[in-house]
Each structure stands twice: as structure tokens, then as C-alpha cells.
Design goal:
The protein is an all-alpha fold. It has one domain. 82% of the residues lie in helices and 0% in strands. It contains six helices and no strands. Helix 1 packs antiparallel against helix 6 and helix 3 runs antiparallel to helix 4. The N and C termini lie close together (5 Å). The mean pLDDT is 94.
């Protein structure tokens, strides 16, 4: 496995774990912050720009669709991040809030979304630290 895949799986995995645990321990503050963020066009622009940089970095550095599941998951995370950034940059703020808070039921499914991030983080971190570079 390439050293790039190992590095990115460790980085993304540890990031997901830390963020998920933080969100779980501070549910109310997280929901309030996300709700306020989605209703602030200036902040959504900044989030979109930062998310775009992260997504592009992963996609440009690691656009590999064959190999182990870990390799493909790292690539998928990069593409999902890139697509999410485009939503943040191009959707009107009221559509973003409606999508994330309304249709995706962020408040009601908070722990499910957080658990997905935690499981993804554990998988990527374990895979990244277990693998050896070739």
C-alpha cells in the first residue's frame, strides 16, 4: 500500500474520531452551532472554501479506484468532501439549511451521523496504522 494512502487514512481517520467524540459529548452545542452556521451565508462561504481545499487536496493526491477497500474509501472520502464543498459554495443558504436540517434530519439523526463518522474514523485509523507501505 502506498505511503500516501497510509498517511491519508491515518489523518482522515483520526480527524473523524476526534470530531465524532467531541460532537457526541457536546450534542446541544454542536446542533446549535451547525444550525447557526447554516443560516449565515458568510460563514458558509468560508466553510465551502476550506472544504473545497481539503477535498481537492485528497482528490488530486489520491484518486485511486482500485486496490484494497482502504484505498477506495480514502478516495471516496475525498470525492464526497469535494462534492459537499460545491453544495456549500453554490447552493443558496436557505436550500443548504433546508437540505441539512430538514431533509437529512440533522437534529433527529444526530447520533447516527456521528456514529457513521466514528466508525469510518476507526476503520481508516486501524487500516492506516495496520498497513505497511510498499
Amino acid at each position: 500500500m502506498s505511503s500516501r494512502t497510509i498517511f491519508l487514512s491515518r489523518l482522515i481517520g483520526l480527524y473523524c474520531i476526534v470530531i465524532a467524540v467531541s460532537m457526541m459529548t457536546r450534542r446541544q452545542a454542536t446542533v446549535e452551532t451547525v444550525t447557526a452556521l447554516l443560516q449565515n451565508p458568510s460563514m458558509m462561504l468560508i466553510v465551502g472554501i476550506i472544504t473545497l481545499a481539503a477535498g481537492l487536496a485528497v482528490v488530486l493526491a489520491h484518486n485511486i479506484w482500485s486496490g484494497s477497500a482502504l484505498v477506495v474509501v480514502v478516495t471516496l472520502v475525498g470525492w464526497i468532501t469535494l462534492i459537499k464543498s460545491l453544495f456549500f459554495l453554490f447552493l443558496p443558504p436557505e436550500m443548504e439549511a433546508g437540505l441539512f436540517l430538514g431533509q437529512l434530519h440533522y437534529r433527529q439523526l444526530f447520533y447516527m451521523y456521528t456514529a457513521i463518522s466514528l466508525v469510518l474514523g476507526i476503520y481508516l485509523t486501524y487500516g492506516g496504522f495496520k498497513s505497511r507501505s510498499s
